Amino acid sequence: MLLIEVFVPKGALDEDERQALGRRLIDTLMVEDDSHAIEVIDAQRTIAQVLVHEPATWVLGDRPVADPASPPRYLVRVTVPASWRKEMCEATVDIVTGVLAETEGAAGRDPGRLRREPHATVLVEGVTEGGIGLHGRVMGSMGLTEFVSRNYRDRTPGGEASHERDKLIDPICGMSVDLDDSTLTLVHEGVLYGFCHGMCRRAFADEHGLSLARKRPS
User: Fold this and answer.
1) Do 124 and 170 belong to one domain?
2) Residue span of the structural domain in which 129 resides
3) Is residue 143, in this structure, part of any structural domain at all?
4) How far apart are CA 52 and CA 205, in angstroms?
5) pLDDT (tens digit, 9 = 90+) per residue, 76-85?
6) What is the pLDDT of residues 88-126, one digit of tens each?
């Protein structure tokens, strides 16, 4: 995640609640689990930002203005590189809605309404190539992949072995990948590698001078 913007009606959350919401979003979206290596998660955290906005004017389609006496509505905009958006969208919408529900529950309001009513709109937007700047220069999707994965790749130059049947560990990001007919793979020096995303596969191919035309052996 590059940027998470949360729009709430003015006065709906106090400063402590806004801070807790921001921390909860980052901690939940970038949790330490088997999805990615801890080095990758830590690198992603260094470029993740949450902004909580309270617009002076908020007009809703089903009423003249936002009613401060009613439970707050939420609009969340999550910005990611465009090449990551499609695969991240479904999980991101579910996770963000869950975090907002926790915030509502902590405030003593009904958290279930966010999944019953259209009270939480989540927009996952992709930044096109050439639209992201980091370290004072334009950084594309491959550059970001390199940035967030470099510490893990330096620690495990040959990748890690999976201890589960029919699973591989992505050598770029450390993610556990199910091995089936749809898995993105490459063979290098007789070893089969699996990848969670085309960007990881491309990064591995570029690093080892491999052709992306190679297929998993049948």
Assistant:
1) no
2) 3-134
3) no
4) 40
5) 999 999 988 9
6) 899 999 999 999 999 999 999 999 999 999 999 999 999
Strand bridging mode 133-134 / 137-138:
antiparallel
13: buried, middle or exposed (CB in 10 Å: 19+, 13-18, 0-12)?
Answer: buried
How much is the pTM? 0.84
Encoded tokens for 174: 């450390």
Stretch (H or E) spanning 63: none
CB 160 within 8 A of CB 166: no
Distance CA 31, CA 16 (A): 22
Interval 163-208: pLDDT, tens: 788 899 999 999 989 999 889 999 999 999 999 888 899 999 998 8
Report yes or no: 4 and 48 within 8 Å, Cβ to Cβ: yes
- The answer to whether position 141 is within a domain reads no
> Of 119, 134, 149, which residue sits at a domain end?
134
Are the C-beta atoms of 204 and 210 separated by less than 8 Å? Answer: yes
Q: Say whether both 110 and 166 belong to one domain.
A: no
**CB 48 within 8 Å of CB 134:** no
Query: Using CA atoms, how far apart are residues 80 and 169, in angstroms rounded to an integer?
Result: 24
Cβ-proximal residues to 211 (8 Å cutoff; 6+ apart), any chain: 205
Query: Has residue 187 been placed in a domain?
Result: yes
131 neighbors 140 (Cβ within 8 angstroms): no
Q: What is the distance, to the nearest Å, from the Cα of residue 70 to the centroid of all Cα atoms in its chain?
A: 31
- For the record, the structure tokens of 65 come out as 């203005």
